[in-house]
């Protein structure tokens, strides 16, 4: 488990409900996709509107204790959600999910049997970008 910055509740109390946007994702880490124990991973970004400055990063799951250090640097530096979206994360790690939240319609994890065992991979379904007028 890792956390840096404000909780969702604290951000709402400090900035007001209308000035806070929260991104959440829940998935099974690929480390567990080939096992019967499908331990969930949960991530949350708490952002202050209107520029979506990240004011809180929260994670539960395998390896998040190592990830959170990097996100604390970004939070301290005043990173926005757009900064996260424009960042290339370390692959393949769960931290990729922090920089893809809200960009996809869906994320599908697929596990298939092969002659060597199970193979797992993720398929991202992209959202269409809105045209600027």
Mean pLDDT over all positions: 78
Low-pLDDT windows of residues: 120-128
**Envelope shape:** globular
Provide the helix percentage: 10-25%
Distance N terminus to C terminus? 43 Å
Give a description of the structure.
The termini are far apart. The longest helix is centred in the middle third of the chain and has 13 residues, at 64-76. This protein has 3 helices and 6 strands; from the N terminus they run E-H-E-E-E-H-H-E-E. The radius of gyration is 16 Å and the shape is globular. By secondary structure, the protein is α+β, with helices and mostly antiparallel strands.
Fold blueprint:
Blueprint: E1 2-5, H1 8-15, E2 20-28, E3 40-48, E4 53-60, H2 64-76, H3 81-85, E5 104-114, E6 117-126
Antiparallel strand pairs: 1-4, 2-3, 3-4, 5-6
Condensed summary:
The chain has 133 residues and is an alpha+beta fold. It is built from 3 helices and 6 strands, in the order βαβββααββ.
């Amino acid at each position: 488990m890792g956390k840096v910055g404000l909780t969702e509740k604290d951000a709402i109390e400090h900035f007001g409900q209308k000035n806070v946007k929260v991104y959440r994702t829940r998935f099974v880490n690929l480390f567990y996709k080939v096992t019967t124990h499908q331990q969930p991973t949960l991530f949350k970004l708490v952002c202050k509107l209107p520029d979506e400055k990240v004011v809180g990063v929260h994670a539960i799951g395998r390896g998040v204790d190592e990830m959170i250090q990097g996100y604390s640097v970004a939070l301290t530096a005043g990173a926005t959600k757009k900064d996260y979206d424009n960042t290339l994360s370390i692959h393949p790690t769960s931290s990729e999910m922090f920089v893809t939240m809200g960009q996809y319609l869906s994320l599908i994890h697929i596990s298939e049997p092969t002659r060597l065992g199970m193979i797992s991979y993720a398929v991202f379904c992209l959202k269409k970008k809105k045209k600027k007028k």
